[in-house]
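hey so u asked for the seq, here:
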Amino acid sequence: MPFDGIVLSAVASRLSALLTDGRIDKIYQPEADELLLHIARGREKHRLFLSSNSANPRVCLVRDYGPYPQNPPAFCMLLRKHIQGGRIACIAQKGTERILECTVYTVNELGFSKNKRLTVEIMGKHSNILLLDEQSGHIIDSIKRLSPEVNRYRQTLPGCPYIEPPSHGKLPWYAVERAHIAAALADGGGLKRAAEDGSGVERAAKAILSLAQGIGPRAADELAAEAFADMRARRENLSEKTLADAILRALKRLADQSRAGRFAPVVYLDRDGKPLDFHAFPLAALESACEAMRFDDINAAVGYYYENRIASNRVRQKSADLLRAAQNSLDKQLLKKQRLLEDLTQAENADKDRLFGELLTANLHTLQTGQRTAILTNYYDGGTVEIPLDPRISPSQNAQRYYKLYGKAKTAVVEKTRRLAETDKEIAYLESVLSFIENAATPEETDALRLELIEAGCLRRRGKQGAAKKQPRPAPLSYTVHGGFRVEVGRNNRENDLLTFKKAAGGDLWLHTKDIPGAHVILFTEGREAPAPAVFEAAAIAAWHSKGRASENVPVDYALAKHVKKPAGARPGMVIFTHNRTLYVKPGLPPADSESAKPTPLSVP
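ran it, structure tokens below
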């Protein structure tokens, strides 16, 4: 369900209770369309998250959010100048619309009080966050600037007067009267016919949508169904008057609950345990069809829904340019390999140049300058050979030219073989990076991979911001397998090197998918002998964290960590190993760790 006016009413009520008179200590802008305000009220610390993202706009309190950019964007710096250090005087919803207004009491450089208003408009692709001057009503700036070329009705440029989004004739749900509802219902369709074809509830929902601000389609359906249930309970006949009265009673109940703050936040989950929908009140249409999670705080419900619903989308968005950069670099290396192979094929067929040189040298006495061809006997097989000649030079010089071509070809074979080996290593490295990008599950993983691609020369730094960004702290994934053995998995090639050459002892087991890009996996034995089930589970983990995740039977090499070496000058994560053995397993994670990743359960022999 979209973040509608009912949800915002619950959020505004809760924020007003928690943040009024709080001090804005810090302001961050994690993304281009997101803000995070650190607010202190007494001993309590809160983090207020504001998003004008087109797909997922919202306002809620969060426990933490990051990382933050080293160089704050211009809008963040402007907010720090105008409202950081100010106190929140009021947080309120604009009517019942999806607009939240946060009035901040500030003091300017001369010591005079001057209030600012931070306005959050939650309206799908038109969502925006604006800083206004409370006294003049003019826009100081907005996170999304709209020029006259984009929107002629209202501009959100600095200095422009603030114009509210068009209401389309809708009223706050507490201001809707029976006459309004009756007029919306009287569209000439006839309620009796609507009742007969089963569209009565749908028609009532459309009337509610056309009248009340901030009510979304799902909530309108719920209110319409509630109105019909109320009519049945009262044993009233269906008519425009009785239906209008029933809808009005439903809207009044909603208004009373909102004013009193009697909300019952709930998140509905699908069969896979992923958030499907949420609202400030239970939705009868989903109560029986989905698993419901009840919350005491609307912020917890909103946070849970969005954190679990859009996390994967956010990772895909952040990694889209990484995939393109890595794939483009891989395509270049594959093309380079193809051309090297073609050059090698030509160079390896250069024995005929040596033969031509030898035959010309042996028959110089029979040749003359100016000849274009020479037909000579091949003393290796007794046949005849036609040799092209350059008529501008002597027969001896023609022989020397063929010897030089043969010498160049021999040098080319050595050089191109060396370059081909280097290209194969680069292809293996890029394929491993691609595998990590495709399996990345958090923004932190994509940030680490971004830095790896930058250092590899596959991606450009993003100006000063990219240059200033610190290397993320290594945090390999950790699992527990049969017998209580610990298994750690690298999330990128730098973590692979850390695990294999820094953390692993010589007697620990090192695992990696055979000839398939994937992560380094270490089974820490701590001096014990790892039983077969533990090794099989570790191998299944290695298969899961590889490009062969979707396969049924994946080969996994394993060896003692002391038999794994890193060639001089090799890329991160590139190793050679000996004394290895191979297992064939089905990719999966240990049952105790399966809830987070939803893998296929293991069947270890």
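Residues 593-605 have pLDDT under 50 and may be disordered. The two ends are 45 Å apart (CA to CA).
lmk if thats what u needed
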